[in-house]
Amino acid sequence: MPLICIASPKGGVGKTTIAANLAHVLACTGRQVLAMDFDPQNALRLHFGIPLEDGAGFLAELPKRPDWRALARHLAPGLRLLPHGRVDLHDALALEEALEREPALLATPLASILAEPGLLVIADTPPGPSRALAALVPQATLVLVALLADGASVAQLPELQSGRFLGNGTLGGLFAARLRVVVNEVEASSRLAGEVARAMAESLGQRLIGAVARDHAVAEALACQTLLADYAPGCRAAEDIAAIARILDRALPAPAAAPAAEPATLAAQWGATWGANWGAPT
Length: 282
Ligand SMILES: Nc1ncnc2c1ncn2[C@@H]1O[C@H](COP(=O)(O)OP(=O)(O)OP(=O)(O)O)[C@@H](O)[C@H]1O
Ligand SMILES: [Mg+2]
Description:
By secondary structure, this protein is of the alpha/beta class. It has a single domain, classed as P-loop containing nucleotide triphosphate hydrolases (Rossmann fold, 3-Layer(aba) Sandwich), CATH 3.40.50.300. The protein has helices at residues 15-28, 44-47, 58-61, 68-71, 89-101, 104-114, 131-136, 151-155, 157-162, 169-176, 191-204, 216-223, 228-231, 236-251, 263-278, and strands at 3-7, 32-37, 73-76, 79-82, 119-124, 142-148, 179-186, 208-213. The longest helix is centred in the last third of the chain and has 16 residues, at 236-251. The chain starts with a strand and ends with a helix.
């Protein structure tokens, strides 16, 4: 079943914010969604109101081969969360080493999760390369990369377009077809943001599927441990995320156990939805 992996070569660009809010919006459209945290920061849960002192989670338990269904939190109809779980430095390094020794430790439960009929998995990942990202990319329907409208993000474009961010050589080239980009924290009044967004649109074409405005409601919603569509439904960032969710919803297989779309089909769908949602890239 479909897997959307939220990733970025950069940290602090809104991966977790986008993962949480996309999961919420897509569940509200009637999909069965599992939001899954692969980042040892264990921050995805905070968007869903899980108390700080609640440190239970899936990745933290992985060496004990936990039952993912038992650890999943039922948050709302159609919406489940698998937190990462609290880990200290030693635990996090031990987990990386265990995954290097035995990739099946993650690959096996991931296959079981992805075999669940009708389930859409939205995975939040740590910044940059990680064992989690390496395990997710070959299974991912789409890899949604978050960037900012700044020079450092533009500098990452060659790595993204070549596929090097997702793998080496031919393998990276194959996975590059799954890559889509969202620009986050766009300041509408900023000339730099406008120029960067234009440069990204030119360079990425249909791979650039959306932009999210910088909006103080985003940080406020997190401070209240609430999702944006509940905290400030009409705010600019909520509307931007809803627009991205609509594009994803149309591009993904229908909720009723349809076969996964081929990348070529997805590309055609993205092309059709681009104009309706964002206008022609310039
Ligand atoms: N569109 C936005 N407008 C305003 N603030 C935002 C927006 N998106 C994210 N933020 C804020 O930016 C900060 C970083 O966001 P977030 O934690 O989602 O990034 P991240 O890429 O997951 O970070 P990390 O690399 O550490 O995992 C948070 O304080 C968040 O509230
Ligand atoms: Mg994060």
